[in-house]
Amino acid sequence: MNDDTRAPGNGDPAEPSLLLDDHFCFTLYAASRAVTGVYRPLLDAVGLTYPQYLVMVVLWEHRTVTVKELVAALHLDYGTLTPLIKRLEAHGLLERQRRADDERVVEVALTPEGTALRERIRTVPLAIGDAIGLTREEIAAAQDLLRRLTANVDRHTAGTGPAVKAP
């Protein structure tokens, strides 16, 4: 888009822009869609969706975690995570069981099939890195910045309602 298409009133630096390209949230959204789009065919080949892959990544790192720990690690709610876990369990990649010392706690653990899948999918991070086209240092800097952004937004929204007031 060129600057000739700017809507009236958006030239005033005191007035927030409503142009799509000026929205930081859109830049994040577009980047996220682009990257997850690269994952799709790679994960389709092993029968995983991107969110399922993220659950598996946590399990490959820790082998066994509680559902609560998965919720925290993946920034998902229980209603979103539970169906992911059930589908992965139905595919034989993980198993759930209640902790013997506290039946309120559900643990999720890799099965041998889930462990074996890690070897089949080892090239995915390399393919994603190639598609991103940034240096390791640039990726690390972007991750640091995005983690800080997430922490700032989480702090800002903790215990607050909507920030936008209806007219």
UniProtKB/TrEMBL annotation:
Locations listed in the record: Cytoplasm
GO cellular component assignments: cytoplasm
Q: Which residues form the HTH marR-type domain?
A: 21-151
Q: Which UniProt keywords apply?
A: Cytoplasm, DNA-binding, Transcription, Transcription regulation
Which Pfam families does the entry link to? Staph_reg_Sar_Rot (PF22381)
Single GO term (MF): DNA binding
> Do you know which InterPro entries this protein is assigned to?
HTH_MarR-typ, MarR/SlyA-like, Transc_reg_Sar_Rot_HTH, WH-like_DNA-bd_sf, WH_DNA-bd_sf
Q: Which PANTHER family match?
A: ORGANIC HYDROPEROXIDE RESISTANCE TRANSCRIPTIONAL REGULATOR, TRANSCRIPTIONAL REGULATOR, MARR FAMILY
Q: What is this protein called?
A: DNA-binding transcriptional regulator, MarR family
Traced from the root, the source organism's taxonomic lineage reads:
Bacteria, Bacillati, Actinomycetota, Actinomycetes, Kitasatosporales
